[in-house]
Model the fold of this input.
Amino acid sequence: MVETWISREAFEKTEEFKNLFGAVPFSEIQAVADSSKKAVSPNAYPTLLFNGMINPIIPFSIQGALWYQGETNAGRAYQYRKSFPLMIQDWRQRFGQGDFPFYFVQLASFNASNGNSAKGSGWAELREAQTATLSLPNTGMAVTMDIGESKDIHPRNKQDVGARLAAIALNNLYNVKTEYSGPVYQASTAEGNKMILSFTHVDNGLVAKDKYGYLKGFEIAGADKKFYYAKAEVKNNQIIVHSDSVANPVAVRYAWADDMPDVNLYNKDGFPASPFRTDTWKGITEEVRYEIKK
Done:
């Protein structure tokens, strides 16, 4: 979990987490970390991995960080919007080298609990929280929705993961000015029974990776918040979405599920689009908060 990588001092400086430790004495947490009698899960308490693995190397310099995590936080995905940036800012403050590069991998497709738009998806909400973290300076995200495995939480294809992270670093740090991101949702407008979507990172065009040219993974809803699978097509570097079941659409979602490996929106540079939604309707993790359980 991300909380085990954050210092206690960082937690206590925030409104969100200042009462996290409550009556739990630090000596108790230290005793767990120092225990040689049994194996201790790093998820037993917050700060354990920060204390054991990050704090000891802080006297050294750092070039940047690559981060691949998130599954354990999917149950409280909404709060990840605060905990993940907190960790990044905590590390940057402690190393004292400014906003060093921090690049991370978005969760891949995986059938965690059959989550989707109808029942809600913690994994989709976690991916959204990861995308929101790009608001921090000098960050980058590799999208992996297309290379996940429905029955394996750890996808075997690490080549594309590495290549996509490398593309970010090459562009941002080594002056190799090529595309490094897939299409990123920017804005939407309703026109009759259709929604028109625009994106960034599409200078060379959008493409559906399908031999018939069909886009997959789009849903559309009206004011009743009921989503229907939708038809989508590329036109003038935008996506036109509609469904015969929705006469007056107000929201579109793409790849909004735990597991949706057949999504196929890319830019012509070969990078996949990040999952997104145009609505801000309440999710299933919005009220969930992290607590230390003894």
